[in-house]
Design brief:
Number of domains: 3
Structural class: alpha+beta
Strand order of the largest sheet: 1-32-33-34-35
Radius of gyration: 26 Å
Oligomer: single chain
Helix content: 10-25%
Number of strands: 38
Shape: globular
Largest sheet: 5 strands, mixed
């Protein structure tokens, strides 16, 4: 954006203006014949050329295409952030999880939900337009109904939809300029993240790894919507990497690309994370399974692969490699290196040379990793733990850390070139994992496992300031519920991040001291942003509980967190501390929930056992593992016995936000799920 050159230009203009004023003043002192009128005119003329502080917006997802989420703004800083107060709030009219990162273009905020695109006056909060999106009733996604934001390019707004449409939108009125379809939602594909535009090409990723899809990246012409190329992240047998798959496993191998990548304009390389192999059960797809669980470097014009690095070969734990690949220039061993860094879900923090893909550093950044004993720096491969090898041979239940939530989940981290630290929300959650055989069905959850979450007493997550080169943290902020919103760091020495319990926090970037907090009314799972209009800096974040941890974990600490989407914007007040009561002093009551009437699952009937298996494959990603929902979706443990007809109708035909499963489940299968639910 144009703001980078503003300061130098302003200094020049300011100097010229001051010289003009000085010169005029001196002339007025020596020339008594100058009239008062002339003095007035001179003053007016001078005033008109005084520069107005330039607006500083947000043009990219991640603030810049390096995904650092770093802002040079300093008006809000560690000395005054405690006076932040709400400037305005906008209701989004949506109870789904809100993960949007708004854009700020020429004073207008553009924000997305799963079913609408908004344009809002970024200074006042006044809605300018809203374009709604309608979905077919059989739209099914893995891990939350959401959208993470839009992309801006040459005066046009671009976004994707859950049913795999790409839209080009007129920013003046919200009208659709063109619309294309990338994939069939009935096959399990979906789209949730902003496109990336690099060297004039728009690149989109795809979700659906939990449904056994064969995923890809697409290149599009942003002006016309013409499809230019497709890079499959799971190669065919005759292609490079195809020999890392056995038989026909590649046809349903996964490899989703559901989070946005980064772009180095100088090198003209796009970096994109690739997710899990399908199914999660590694024994069902032996081999390294390229290019799943990797970062790929590609040329944007053609989709040509430049290099790749695989974090977790033959992944069996859903350690998606999609986390944000952040670009930075860092001194390593006395030499400045162009690097890409990623805090991977597998619990290791990686630093790669972004020109070559060479592994430079790989260090543990979470407290507990049991699936591997470290990373072999000579080969770049993980040293797989004996417990994992034994599990793959025997199929016995095994405790694994971290869980599928990862050491870090999808919430983007931030990197400050000022402090040299990465700021990431980390997880302290494990699971007991049991591999099972599963038949593949198109559009049905395909994971080949059962599991039980291991939620420790005490902190289940930490916001950490991490040294990228060592994995060690300078400071941490523990939370009983993991923070799963993104992070923003500014040159004002402030780190902002939100909690699933609803607080937006501000911390000292150097020390970790908590400086401010504000309760937004619902959980935050979105990344904050900052922008400046008319010389005033603002902080903005979307609020609205949802997402994978909320849907899957059954964490009772989220029972009191109400859904409801909104965007909050904050500005500095006129003094005084506007922060709310500390979240650590307000704890929701423990809510007792009914457990299964028969604790010994070996005594379950075959019908209930089959229903439980089907439930985990089709229902658990919305209604919680073992029906232990966190409260934002219907708690099936409360479904009344004897109302089978209502249950069957809702599952088969869909109801409200509940998708229709009639083309994926037989009548007998729906009946078995019902028997499990009421058991």
């Amino acid at each position: 954006m144009k703001n980078k050159s503003y300061l130098s230009k302003a200094l020049i203009v300011g100097f010229l203006v001051s010289m003009c004023i000085s010169g005029c003043s001196e002339s007025n002192q020596t020339n008594e014949s100058v009239s008062k009128q002339k003095l007035v005119e001179t003053a007016v003329e001078t005033k008109t050329v005084v520069p107005v502080q330039q607006d500083i917006g947000v043009e990219y997802y991640g603030l810049e295409q390096n995904l650092q989420r770093y802002s040079p703004l300093t008006q809000i800083n560690d000395s005054n952030v405690q006076t932040l107060r709400p400037s305005w709030v906008l209701s989004l009219g949506d109870n789904r999880g809100q993960q949007t990162q708004p854009l700020i273009i020429d004073g207008i905020m553009y924000a997305t939900t799963h079913n609408a695109t908004y344009a809002v006056d970024a200074k006042s909060g006044r809605q300018l337009w809203k374009t709604k999106i309608e979905y077919p009733p059989d739209t099914v996604t893995c891990c939350g109904i959401t959208n993470r934001g839009a992309t801006w390019h040459e005066g046009v707004l671009y976004r994707v939809t859950l049913d795999n449409h790409i839209q080009a939108i007129n920013p003046e009125n919200g009208a659709i300029i063109w619309e294309k379809v990338a994939a069939d939602v009935k096959e399990g594909f979906s789209m949730t993240s902003a496109p990336l535009i690099a060297n004039g090409i728009m690149i989109t990723g795809i979700a659906g790894g939990e449904f056994g899809v064969r995923a890809f990246l697409d290149g599009w012409d942003p002006k016309t919507g013409d499809h230019l190329w497709r890079f499959y992240t799971v190669p065919e047998p005759t292609e490079t990497g195809g020999d890392t798959w056995k038989g026909d496993d590649w046809k349903r191998g996964g490899g989703p690309t559901w989070l946005i990548g980064s772009y180095d304009k100088e090198l003209d390389i796009v970096y994109w994370g690739v997710g899990n192999a399908a199914p999660w059960n590694a024994a069902m797809h032996p081999g390294d399974n390229l290019y799943t669980e990797s970062v790929i470097a590609i040329k944007p014009k053609t989709g040509e692969l430049v290099w790749h690095y695989q974090f977790t070969p033959n992944d069996g734990f859903d350690y998606d490699g999609v986390n944000d690949p952040i670009l930075a220039d860092i001194e390593i061993d006395g030499t400045m290196r162009k690097i890409m860094m990623q805090a991977n879900r597998n619990g290791y923090f990686y630093v790669l040379d972004r020109e070559t893909g060479e592994l430079l550093k790989a260090n543990q950044f979470v407290d507990k990793v049991t699936w591997a004993d470290g990373i072999d720096m000579k080969t770049g491969r993980p040293i797989v733990a004996e417990r994992v090898k034994n599990m793959l041979k025997t199929g016995e239940p095994t405790e694994i850390w971290p869980a599928a939530f990862g050491g870090k989940n999808l919430a983007p981290m931030a990197y400050s070139p000022t402090t040299g630290l990465a700021y990431a929300n980390t997880f302290n959650v494990g699971w007991k994992y049991t591999p099972v055989e599963q038949e593949y069905k198109p559009g049905v959850f395909y994971i080949g496992m059962s599991f039980e979450w291991l939620l420790p007493e005490g902190p289940k997550g930490f916001l950490r300031a991490i040294d990228p080169l060592t994995g060690k943290f300078k400071w941490e902020f523990p939370t009983e519920v993991p923070m799963n919103g993104g992070v923003l760091v500014t040159d004002g020495n402030v780190v902002f991040s939100g909690a699933q319990t609803g607080e937006l926090y501000a911390f000292n970037a150097e020390t970790g001291e908590k400086l401010w907090e504000f309760r937004t009314g619902s959980g935050i799972i979105a990344p904050p942003i900052t922008y400046q209009i008319d010389g005033k800096q603002y902080i903005a974040v979307a609020s609205g509980i949802g997402g994978v941890y909320n849907n899957f974990s059954g964490d009772v600490n989220l029972k009191n967190i109400n859904p409801g989407g909104s965007i909050w914007v904050f500005e500095l007040g006129d003094g005084g501390n506007t922060s709310t009561v500390s979240a650590n002093t307000i704890k929701p009551p423990v809510i007792e929930v009914a457990e299964a009437s028969v604790d010994d699952k070996s005594k379950w009937s075959d019908t209930v056992k089959h229903g439980a298996e089907l439930y985990e494959q089709t229902c658990s990603h919305c209604h919680g593992v073992e029906m232990k929902t966190s409260g934002t979706t219907y708690d099936l443990r409360t479904f009344p016995k004897g109302d089978k007809e209502r249950f069957v109708t809702a599952v088969v035909k869909g109801k409200g936000s509940m998708p229709a499963w009639g083309d994926k489940l037989t009548a007998e299968e729906v009946s078995d799920i019902y028997e499990y639910v009421i058991h």
